[in-house]
Structure formats: C-alpha cells, structure tokens
Amino acid sequence: MKKKLAAAFLTLCMAAGTLAGCGGDSSSASGDTSTTGTEENKTEEKGETTEAQESVKMSAEELKSMGLEAEDTDLTGEFTYWSAFTGDSQVWDQSRVDAFNELYKDKGIKCNVQFVPDGAGINNGKLLSAIAGGQAPDLVICDNATAAYSYAANGSFEMLEPYLEQVNLNVDNFFDGCKDVIYYKDEPYLIPQDTNVMLLYYNPDIAKEAGLDPENPPKTLDELDQWAEAMTIQNDDGSYARFGLIPWLDLKDDAFTLPFFFGADVYDADTNKLNLTSPQMVSCMEWLQSYGEKYDPERISSFTSGLGGMFSPDHAFMTGKVGMTITGNWFSNALRVYAPDVNYEVCAVPVPEGGRTDSTTFQTNVFAVPKGSQNPELAALFIKFCMSGAVNEDNFAQWRSIPTSDAEFDNVSLTKDGDEMYKLERELANSPENGIPALCSCSAELAKAFVTFREGVIYGNITDIQGELQKLQDKYQTELDNAE
Q1: Which residues sit opposite 327 in a β-bridge?
Q2: I need a surface site. Which of 30, 126, 213, 341 has the fewest CB within 10 A?
Q3: Which of 28, 3, 251, 312 is nearest to 132 (CA)?
Q4: pLDDT lower than 70: segments of the chain
Q5: What 3-state DSSP class applies to 46?
C-alpha cells in the first residue's frame, strides 16, 4: 500500500504541475471542468452572489415538501467532506450540505464541508498528502472520474460495499456505462452523483445562413465536416471570422471522448492491456490533424487564444464565432444564463462508419471515501441523501444532467414537462455502447499525456501518429504491468 500511495502521489503531483501551466479550471455540478477565467470566478472572488447562484440553492423545508425525510438511523456524529465544486456549483453544494445538516440535526449528525481546488485535492496531490498524514476527509466528490479511478486502483479509497449495504443504497440498477467507474476488480469504490451526455450543439440560424437544413443536422462524420466547412468564414487576410467547428474547443482536458465516438477501446480490464494503436484511434487522430492542416494550426491558435470560457458570455458559440461545438448537457445552462438570446439545437455526436452511433461517454462527478476515513458510514448516508430525486431536482433542472438509472428519469420534472433535449439525452443514455473510457490504474497520468499528444498532432509537432501512439502504449503498458 505505501509503495502504491507514494507512486501515485509523485505521478499526480507531476500532472498537477502540467495543469498549473494551463491556468486554473472551475468545476461545475455537471462534471465539466473547462471554465478557465470566467465571469463566474470573477464574481466569486468579489464575494458576490449572482441571481443564477441564488436560483440553485435548496433548503430542508423544500426537500421535506417533496417527500424527503431523514433516514431512521442510529448513526450520529460529524464527518468531513471535501468538494471539488466552485462558482454556481459551490453555492449549490453548500446549500445541499446545509439542507442535510438541518434534516439530521436532531440525530446529532453534521457534515463539515470544505471546497478544495483541483478535484477535491485529487489532481494536485493534496488528498494523498492528507491520507498519508492521517488527516484524510471522510468523503470527497471529484469532477474528474478518470483521476478518481486511478486513486481507487492504487488503493487510496475504501471499498464501499459494507457501507452501502448499511444505508441500503443499491447500485445494481445504475446504467451499465456508469458501472465502469463504480467497480474496480468487481468491488465498488466510486459512486456517480449523476451523469452527463455528450452532444453536438449547433446554431440553426448560422446553419440557414450557410445554406444548410437545421431540421436535418449531421449524422455522419462526412456530413459534420461538410457543415463545418459551409459555416466557416475566412477574412481576406487569411484570418477567420468564424469557424464551423473546432472539434477540440470544449474538450481541452478531455483525452478520450472523441476516440470513444470513433469506436476506440483504449483499455481492456479483463486482460489489463492498453490499445492506443487501433485503427479507430489512428483514424480519430488523423481527423483532428486534418482540421489543423486545413485551417492552419497557427490561425486556429490565434483565433482560440482570445475566446472566453464555457461559463462566460464571450464563449465562441455564444458570440457566433463558431457554429457548432461538442460538449455536454451542462452547456445548455451556460447558454441560458449567459446567452439567453442565442438560438441553438442539439443532436447526437456524428461518428464515422463503424463508430459508436447515437451513444455517449458518461461524464460524471464521483463520490469516494478516502483510506483512513473515520466515519465511512456517515459518508455513505450523505451519498444516499445526495442520490435522492428531491436533492437532484434543481441540479437536473439547471444543468440537464441525468440520473444514474433509466427509471429515475420518470421522476424528473424535465421528463414530466416533455423537454425535447432531455428526451434525447435519455435515448442516448440507454445506448448499450456507452461507457467511461480508459479507466485503469494509470488513468490520470495517461489522460494528461494523451492531451499533450493530441495537441502535438493538431498543431503539427507530431506527424508519425502510429509510431508515437506505440511509444505511449509501451510506456503506460509497462506501468500497468508493474502495478500488478
């Protein structure tokens, strides 16, 4: 155990150093982490509370009116909870904790929350330091499921089965794709709070202007490329006034979503083998490379350098500087708050022949109980509280995130109200192709390395895609083999 913890600590500290050069990201309840330098953060620094933040607060009385009552339990005491959330989501999570404390105060149960940057201390080594020093929190929620899974695989989290049984929380009915992250070697270590669906957002007004039919969005990769070209406007000096699509725009730190849609299977848990050199992976990288070559990587870089973050009115989609973008359901809330007049539609992410049609990766926030937790039973009780439909109702309504099982959709107001986008999300969530890619003991380090590799492909620093993929595979396969 000590060797594994030490190795993981060094790995994640190195990864944190890489991240620090890119600027700090802000987490949301949706699982998104791409809001660098947003108005949300500026408001938070001033100590102000926005109207949007006020709207996401909940109270114990509201929850009781929706039928939620305190569990009949003999548990008592206080526990420590580290949350990764910031901005609007921090306000929401704080109100969730306050409601829990109010609901359970007569039983002497209290949650003490701390908002800890960089994925509840997972991305920068703070959590591992706390575990090693005997100061671990009792519970964390992380917005980076891939990094959290690495912690589980390296022995940094408690196995949850006895605690889930004690509070009667059953994960058998969760979507199969969610179970990818719940289980490590057939035992539960992580619990998704909710999950998210990846979509193609497109502006129907721009589509019409470009001579396209917004009622028939692209379904294949070839059609997506055609739409991107038709929407793109280049100035006389060669710079760009608008791009139809920059595929990686809102997937900056997301290494494996696009390869997933191409049909790549990065890791086989049964054999403990990586497969980074598959034809599907190579095809995905060649597709990204083609965008860099076609539109000039330097001009793309110049164009994107001044763009606002996802939760900013200066985001390229909100200002009409891109006609399409690939991101999750949480972006609908950003549009509602920061660009309510922008017209948009969504559809399934188009894929090449042989890809995962009408499917999605599951982007999720995950709960975990760190090794050394003094109150894992209370942590499990809070997890169960957070899984209830009443607690998640505002979360679902704000972010259009989805429950972890199909049956729970029927209890969500968006479903009851016939929301068309939510209907599509439900359809995609039920695809048998869904999952969370590349979950293994070196997930976090591999993801960071792969983002760097992808940047090299896009901007022309890497030309031998197959060869460089093989080098990555050899390096990280050795790490996997040594970890066994």
Answers
A1: 199
A2: 341
A3: 3
A4: 1-57
A5: helix
